[in-house]
Amino acid sequence: MRFRPLWLCLAALATPSCADGGHETLEIIVPFREGGGSDQWARALAPFLQRQLGDSLVVQVVNIPGASGLQGGNVFALRRAPDGRSLFVSSGSNVFPALLGEPAVRYDFADFRGIVGSPVGGVVYASAELGIGSVEELCETEQLLVYGGVSPTGLDMVPLLAFELLGVDVLDILGYSGKGAARVAFEQGETNLDYQTSPAYLANVVPLVEEGTAVPLFTFGMLDETGRVIRDPVFPELPSLADAYWTCRGGAPSGDPWDAYRAVLVAGFSAQKNLWVHGDAPDGRVQGLIRAAAAAVEDPDFLRLAERLLGGYSFYLGEQVEENLAATSRMPPAATAWLVDFLTREYGVRLPERAD
Amino acid sequence: MAEEALQALLTLLVPVNLAFMLAGVVVGMAVGILPGLGGTVGLSLLLPFVFGMDQAPAIAMLIGMAAVVHTADTFPSVLLGVPGSSGSQATIMDGYPLARKGEAARALSAAFLSSMAGGVVGAVTLLLILPVARPLVLAFRSPELFMLALLGLSMVGILSGKHPLRGGLMAALGLLIASIGAAPATPFYRFTFGQLYLYDGIPLVVLALGLFALPELLDLLVAGASIAGSQAVEVGRGRWEGLQDVIRERLLVFRSAVLGVAVGFIPGLGGSVVDWISYGVAAQTSKNAESFGKGDIRGVIAPESSNNAKEGGALIPTLLFGIPGSGTTAVLLGGLVLLGLQPGPRMIRGDLDVTLLIVWTLALANVFGALGCLALSGLVARLATVRAAVLAPFLLVVMLAGAFQSTRSWGDLVAFVVIGLMGWVLRRLGYPLPPVLIGFVLAASIERNLWISMTRYGWSWLLEPGVIGIGIITVVLTTLGVRLNRRTAG
Q1: Chain A residue with minimal CA distance to B137?
Q2: Quick one: average pLDDT of B144-166?
C-alpha cells in the first residue's frame, strides 16, 4: 500500500478514495464499519494482495456499512460494474439473512465467484462454579445453565442449535451488545455458559481456563468436503459437536435439525469470511486475482499476521469458496422449514414474507 | 512499574514516535474542528496507514489523534454554536453565549486549558486504575448498567430549564427516534418502512448536527448578523482571562475530569453524553447556578474537562476486555488488532509496555493539542465576526459533508434536513433540544439492559443493593434539579 500524504485524504474526506493517483483501483468492499472483524480481515489481506498485483493496481479497502452488512452487499451486487475491479467481503452476518430469506437482500452468492476465504472455529465453555468438566456432565446437570448471546439470527444460531441438538436445557439471554460484552457477563456470573470464536477464545478465555474459572467443553467442529462435522483443527483435543452428540444421545446425529446445524455452521464458521467478485467479470482477471490471493496467503509475513488474527486456520481458494458456501444453499427445504419454525417458536423471530 | 513507565516515556520521546504522535495530533485537530467529524472518522482515516508500521509509532499516531479531538472540537461549538463532534455539544450552552458577548477568546482558552487538564487527569487515572480495574468493570452487571442509564436520563430534569415536563417530552422523543431500526435486544426491525437506510437507525452524528447545527444556521441567517453581533470588534480579548478562570475553578476541572473517566469507563453508558452529564452536574452543584446557560465560563470548563478525560476511562474496558467504551475506541480496537495486539488481560501482564505507551501518548498529546489550539485560537476566533450570509453556505457544505460521512448514503442528507427542520420548529416553540439527544443516546443501553435484567433475574434485580443505591441518587438528583430550576425561574 502506498503512503500518501494524510492531507490529501483529509481534503478528499467525503469521497472514499484517497489513494488513486492515475492507477487503476481494485476496490474491496467491506460491508461493515472500520475496525470490525471483517474490516481487519480485509485490511490484513489487502497489502499482501497489493504485493502480488504490483503497482499498476492500487488495492483499496472501502467500508460501506449499514443494515448488518446488507447495504454493502446490495451496493456491490447492483451498483458496481462486473469488471473484476470490485470485490466484496462476506461474513456470517450477511450470509444468514440471505439464508433465511430476508427480503432486503438483493444479492445472491450464486451470482458471484469466490477468490479466497477462511474459516474460524468456536469453543463452548462453562463456568467452573457449575462443577461441569465434560460434555457428559453438561448433558446430565440439573443446574440452571445461562447462556449469553447477541441475537438468535446471528452467529448465536449455531450454539443455540447445538444446545437444542444435545437436548441441554439452557436459559438463553440474548441481547448483549456483542460477544465481548457477553464474555464480560460470563465473568460477572450473570451467565455461566458461553462460546467465543477461536481468536477471542485464545486471547481472552484461555487466561480464565488457566486461572481455573472457566472449563472448555466442546467446539462447533468444522464441515469437511464430504459434509461431515470433524474436530476443529486448532483445538483437536476438544470434542466437536458431532462427538458431543454421540456422548449425550448415544448415536449419530441426523434429521432436519442436524442438516440445519450443518448449514448454519458453514455460513457462520467453516466458511466465515470470503472474498467475492462478480460472476460475469472477465475470466482472465478473476484467474489473476485468485493466483494473487493464492500467493498472498502463502506469504510468511501474512501467515504470521493471520495466525494472530484468525487463530491459525488455513485459507481456501477460488472454486473452493463457492463450494463451501454452496453447502449452505443446499440445505434441504425441510431443514430450512424446521429452522424457521425453531427460531419462531423459541425466539419469536418473525421472518418477513419474500416480496417476489 | 516505575521503571517500565520511564522506559515507555523514553520510547515515546524517540523522534520518529514523537513525529507520528504530532501527525496524529494534527489530524485529530482537523477532524475535531470540522463539524460532524469526530474521533471515529479520524481513526478510520489513519487506519489504512497503520498496517506495516511498527507498533510504537502507530500507537503514538492513533492515540495522539484520539486524544485531541475533544480539544479542537470546541472551536465550532463556541464560535458557531455548532457541535464540532458529538462530545462537545454541552459546551455550546455557555460557550456560544460567551462568543455572542464578544468573549470568544476567553471561552476558547478556558476550554483548551481545561481540556488539557482533563486529558492529563484521564491519563493518570487510567494508569492508576488499570491494575485494579478488572473487578471494577465486572461490578457493573446489566441491572446496574440499566440504572446508570436511567441516572443519565435524569440529567434531562436539570437541562430543561423552566419546563421539566417539556424536557421529559423531548427525552421521550429522543427515545422514540432511537427505536428506529434494528432493536437492540430482539431480532426485530422497527419503523423502517422498507427503507434499507433505516435498518441501522438514524446515525448519532446526523441527529446531533440536525438538531443543533441546522436550526442555529437558520436563526443566524434570519438575524442576518455575524455571530458576535456588534461586539465583534475585539474577539481576541480575554484569552488571558480564560486561563485564569480555569485556575480559579481548578476544583471543578478536577471533579469533572473524574466524572468523565467514570462515565467513559462504564461500557454502554454512552461516552457521547458525558459532556451533558458533566454540564448538568456542574449546574446542579455550583453556587449562583442561575447564570448557567447565559454565558457562564463554568459551563464551558466542566464539559471540556470531562470529554477529554473520558477517553482515558473508555480505554479501560477496551484494553482489558476488548470491549469498546466509545465509538472511537471501537475503531481503535481494530487498529490494535492489526498491529498484532489482542486486547485482554495480557495488556497488563505481557504487553504492559504498550499500555504504558498509550498512557503517555494520551497525556502528552493532550498537552500538545491544547497548545496547538491555543495558538490557533486568536486567528480562528475571527470567524465569529464574519457575516452570517457569507459564512452560511460554507458551513452548510461542511455540515452536509459531516452528515454524509456517517453512512455515505443519501439517507444521511435527507435525515439531516428533516431532523434539522424539526429541531428548528421545536426550538422556536421553546422546547429544549439537549434532552432529545440524551434520550437518543441512552435508549439502546436502557432497552438492552432492562431486557437482559428481566430475562435473567425476573423482578428480583430490583432488590440488588447497587440498583437501589443508584435509584436513590437518581430520584434525589431529579427532584433537586426540577426544584432548582423552578427557583431560578421564579
Answers
A1: A184
A2: 82
Question: CA-CA distance, A263 to A332, in Å (whole number)?
Answer: 9
Determine the Cα–Cα distance for residues A136 and B304; give it in Å rounded to an integer. 57
Largest Cα–Cα distance of chain B, in whole Å? 63
Q: With an 8 Å Cβ cutoff, are B331 and A349 in contact?
A: no
- Region of B284 on the Ramachandran plot (φ > 0 left; ψ -120 to 50 alpha; else beta): alpha
Q: CB–CB of A149/A162 below 8 Å? A: no
- As a whole number of angstroms, the longest Cα–Cα distance in chain A is 67
Is residue A312 within 8 angstroms of chain B, CB to CB? no
B262, B316 Cβ separation under 8 angstroms: no
A16 pLDDT above the threshold of 50: no
Instruction: Report whether B215 contacts B78 (CB < 8 A).
Output: no
Which DSSP string corresponds to A5-60?
Answer: -HHHHHHTTTSS-S--SSSEEEEEEESS-TTSHHHHHHHHHHHHHHHHH-TTEEEE
Q: Is A129 on the interface with B (CB under 8 A)?
A: no
Mean pLDDT of A157-170: 95
Amino acid at B331: V
Phi first, then psi, for residue A222 (nearest 5°) are -140, 140
What is the per-residue pLDDT across B170-221, written as a single tens digit (0 to 9) for each? 999 999 999 998 888 777 888 888 888 888 889 888 888 888 888 888 887 8
What is the rounded (10 degree) CA torsion for B371, B376, B381, B382?
Answer: 160
C-alpha to C-alpha distance for B325 and B306, rounded to whole angstroms: 15
Question: What is the DSSP secondary-structure string of B243-261?
Answer: HHHHHHTHHHHHHHHHHHH
Cell, residue B147 = 440504572
Indicate the helix (H) or strand (E) that contains A113: strand A112-118
Do the beta carbons of residue A152 and residue A346 sit within 8 Å? yes
Q: Find the CB nearest A175 among B323, B337, B451.
A: B451
pLDDT at position A356 over 70: no
pLDDT value, residue B195? 83
Beta carbons within 8 Å of A256's beta carbon, 6+ residues apart? A332, A334, A335, A337, A338, A339
CA nearest to A153 within chain B: B187
Residue owning grid cell 482472465: A284
The C-alpha cell at A286 is 478473476
CB atoms A71 and B409 under 8 Å: yes
A57, β-bridge pairs: A24
User: Hey, is the C-beta of A40 within 8 angstroms of any chain B C-beta?
Assistant: yes
Specify the range with the lowest mean pLDDT, choosing from A170-174, B142-146, B337-341. Answer: B337-341
Return phi, psi of residue B188, to 5°: -120, 150
Apex B486 CA angle, B484 and B488, nearest 5: 70
Residue B269, class by beta-carbon neighbours within 10 Å (0-12 exposed, 13-18 middle, 19+ buried)? buried
Beta bridge partners of A146: A171
Nearest residue to A238 via CA among A276, A198, A266:
A198
CA–CA distances in Å: residue B335 to residues B126, B311, B396: 20, 16, 32
pLDDT band of residue A1 (cuts 50, 70, 90) is very low
Reported pTM:
0.85
Tell me: the pLDDT tens digits for A93-115? 888 888 887 888 889 998 999 99
What pLDDT does B165 receive?
87
3-class DSSP state of A316: strand
Q: Is B231 exposed, middle or buried (0-12, 13-18, 19+ CB in 10 A)?
A: middle
